[in-house]
Design brief:
By secondary structure, the protein is of the alpha/beta class. The protein contains 15 helices and 24 strands.
Length: 550
């Protein structure tokens, strides 16, 4: 529990004391916005529901009142307040028939048991293939900047790729992929995308709890239900027909039947000399139907137009959606209000918008983007990144806010992941004005960098960071801060109990928003272009467009 004095702290305004030209941020207004957005009236803010309609209306009203302009789709020559986001909804209908054959006998795999098969997101109504061979491709990494290629020219067309989760450094803690910290190449989304690029019939990701950072029940629950994706012009370039996870012990047995040793092959995969290995005599057949539909949702976009360099854009983002109405808890509550996740982020976005609205226009434009469908897989931000309202080449940077803590001030702050980039260096340097220290992601191997809305922009090269509240509270220290986070994760995260509380002072959030305003304002007034470190997997796509930033 937090100290009582901190819980009862109700300072209405965090004054500008640490840096010049930093606005006042209203803690009471943050509380009000969270209370409204997380109320039962908004029904958990599920995309494509009545809750979305109320949420979008509220955001537009607040951005209007802040003095910002519409920053969304062009409609009849004028900007609207929203960006239409068509989403694909994919659901397996009927049984999933999976048959493994080793040349001597056949075996039936059960959906959610040996394998967890996702509904195909290619638009196909059925997935049907017979006796497709399996090829082990190690970690499935193709990283030119690291001189690493796990494929070595293998042709995966007509084959299933068996691929390890995480990246080659995870077990040894050292090497070309940053040690324990997960790179983009370790994330399951990359595996699916790369196997599609390689032309595979499907991807079977080998599940192991430590490198995945979660157990099989999480894999099963996350992959055997309804899937969502943005509507893509060529979905086959991002998704193979089959996308699935497979239990580690099942794979080890398949290797043994093929006369191979899984552990030895895995160890070899951690080296640059690894070559793909076919599991001779092993094949898989799969048959299941898929219901594919298109639903529509909205991102909300507001802008403070710049003066001298208005075609250059600094972005603040946060996701407005949560889980909507779902299974009731023990008390019968079925509305997943999403107060901390992520009404806090949207309240932050609104308050930052108010601060910019009152201030003189900066040289560069500043965009406030409230995105949809984060809980469905970062889809609102993915859609924006694939269909940007403002060119990515001239987007200076993106600062994302997600699930901030509404308590008293902390002595530190953190980010999702610790990717090396100038934007993070700027944030750390500016934080010293408030005597704030930076605490790197405590579990970089878990891949948190790839789980928030800044990531779709990052993978396209735009410098991006997702801000996280610190744990070292001014009242109670690390012990109190960790207790608060642990209690939230255990009892409230993605539960109906994630509700607004009158005891939340919001003073820590207010102070942190001064920092985020200050960094964004510096960027909006400068001619600088932050970039990724030279060894970053995101540097190359940024450098491709360098000529457009002269």
């Amino acid at each position: 529990m937090l100290a009582t004095t901190m819980l009862l702290a109700t300072t209405a305004t965090i004054a500008a004391t640490a840096a010049d030209h930093v606005p006042q941020i209203e803690a009471q207004r943050l509380s009000h916005d969270v209370k409204v957005l997380a109320s039962d009236e908004f029904e958990g803010r599920g995309p494509n529901t009545a809750g979305e309609t109320k949420t979008v209306h509220y955001l537009i009203e607040q951005f209007k009142a802040a003095g910002l302009k519409p920053g969304g789709d062009m409609v009849k020559g004028k900007r609207a307040w929203t960006q239409e986001v068509p989403l694909g909804r994919f659901e397996i209908k009927g049984p999933v028939t999976l048959t493994l054959n080793d040349g001597k006998s056949s075996q039936t795999f059960l959906q959610g048991d040996q394998m967890a098969v996702r509904a195909a997101m290619t638009g196909a109504k059925r997935v049907d293939f017979d006796k497709v061979p399996l090829v082990f491709v190690g970690y499935g990494v193709k990283a030119p900047e690291r001189n690493w290629d796990d494929f070595k020219g293998v042709n995966l067309k007509g084959k299933l790729a068996v691929v390890l989760i995480n990246d080659p450094d995870f077990e040894t803690g050292e090497g070309d992929f940053g040690g324990k910290a997960m790179t983009y190449y370790g994330r399951w989304t990359y595996k699916y995308e790369e196997m599609a690029r390689q032309g595979a019939v499907g991807t079977l990701i080998v599940h192991e709890t430590a490198p995945a950072s979660y157990g099989w029940p999480t894999v099963k629950n996350s992959n055997t239900n309804v899937m969502y994706d943005i509507v893509r012009k060529e979905p086959g370039k991002s998704h193979a027909p089959m996308e699935a996870w497979i239990q580690r012990d099942v794979v080890a047995d398949l290797f043994k039947r093929a006369g191979l040793d899984f552990d030895a092959a895995k160890k070899q995969a951690q080296t640059r000399d690894f070559k793909p290995v076919e599991l001779k005599g092993i094949n898989l057949s799969a048959h299941y139907a898929v219901d594919a539909q298109v639903i529509k949702s909205k991102n909300v976009a507001a802008i403070k137009e710049g003066t001298d360099q208005k075609d250059q854009t600094v972005m603040y983002t946060g996701h407005w959606d949560h889980l909507g109405v779902g299974e009731p808890d023990a008390k019968g509550d079925k509305i997943y209000n999403g107060a901390i996740d992520n009404a806090t982020g949207i309240a932050s976005l609104l308050e930052l918008g108010r601060a910019y609205g009152k201030a003189p226009a900066p040289k560069r434009s500043v965009l406030f983007l409230a995105v949809t469908a984060e809980e469905k897989g970062l889809l609102g931000s993915e859609y924006y990144a694939a269909n940007p309202l403002y060119p990515l080449a001239t987007t200076v940077a993106m600062i994302n806010v997600d699930a901030l803590l509404p308590y008293g001030p902390a002595r530190n702050f953190s980010t999702s992941g610790s990717a090396k980039q100038d934007l993070l260096d700027m944030l750390i340097a500016k934080a010293r004005n408030w005597n704030l220290s930076y605490s790197p992601d405590s579990k970089p191997e878990a891949g948190h960098f790839f789980r928030s809305d800044h990531f779709p922009m990052a993978k396209r090269g735009v410098p991006a960071v997702s801000f996280e509240s610190g744990e070292d509270l001014e009242e109670g220290g690390l012990a109190a801060g960790k207790a608060v986070k642990e209690a939230y994760n255990e009892h409230n995260y993605h539960q109906p109990s994630d509700e607004w509380s009158a005891n939340w002072p919001f003073t820590g959030m207010a102070r942190d928003l001064q920092l985020l305003y200050s960094v964004g304002r510096d960027l909006a007034e400068s001619k600088d272009w932050p970039n990724w470190s030279k060894d970053s997997e995101f540097r190359a796509p940024r450098d491709v467009t360098a000529s457009k930033r002269r």
